[in-house]
Amino acid sequence: MPVDVQISRLPRSFPYRGAAGLSLRLNGLAKSGDGSEARARSTEATACLSYSDLSNSLGLEVSQGDRPGRVSAVVPLPFGCQVTVTTSVTAVSGNRVVRRGFKVTGGALPDAGGQSLDKVFAQPIRRRNLPSGLRLRSLTSAAEGLTARISGGSVTFRPDGAARDGIARSGTAGRTA
Fold first, then answer.
1. Cβ-based neighbour number of residue 50 at 10 Å
2. pTM of the full predicted structure?
3. Minimal CA–CA distance to 157: which of 21, 15, 20?
C-alpha cells in the first residue's frame, strides 16, 4: 500500500533548504526491526523551489531567466558592483546539476572575472544529501521557480547521525560541492 505525503509549505527547519513544497509517494514502506531506519521499495518525489526561497537559501537574488527554461542570478562583486548572470540548469547522471549556456546579461564584468565565472559555472554541482537509493531525475525551471523530480528503488531513510559507510542520510542539510 503506497504512502502519499503532500506538504505545501515546508518549515524553516526542513533540512533541504529552499524547498517550498514536496510531494512524496512511498511504496512498500517498512521500518527496520530496531527502528534505526525505514526502507521503501520505491519512491517518487517532486520538490518545488520558489525563486524567493532559493534566493534566501543561497544569499543571491535568483529569478526566472531571460526566456523559459533559464534562471538568472545577481552576483555581487568587489567594490559594490554586481552582475546578472543567466543560465539553464538540468539534472545529469550521478545526482549532479549542470548549468549550460551561461552568459552575463547585466552589468560590466572584466575579462578575468568572466573567465573565473566560466570556470565556476562549468563545474557540475553534486547533490550529496539524497537518501541512499534516490536519484535526481530532472530539474526544470518555470516562472514560479525550480522543480526537481527524484525517484528510486530500495530507498533507505535514516535519522540524523545514523549514516553508515559515507552514505548520505535523509534529514541533513548537506551542502553542494
1. 16
2. 0.73
3. 15
Examine the pLDDT at 93 and tell me if it is beyond 60: yes
CA 4 to chain centre: 21
How far is the C-alpha of 134 from the C-alpha of 148, rounded, in Å?
A: 12
User: What is the CB neighbour count within 10 angstroms for residue 65?
Assistant: 21
In Å, how far are 17, 74, 136, 149, 171 from 13, measured between CA atoms? Answer: 8, 26, 22, 22, 10
Whose CA is closest to 137, among 153, 156, 150? 150
- H/E segment holding residue 56: helix 51-58
Q: Given pLDDT bands bounded at 50, 70 and 90, which one contains residue 94?
A: confident
By C-alpha distance, which of 82, 100, 86, 163 is closest to 129? Answer: 163
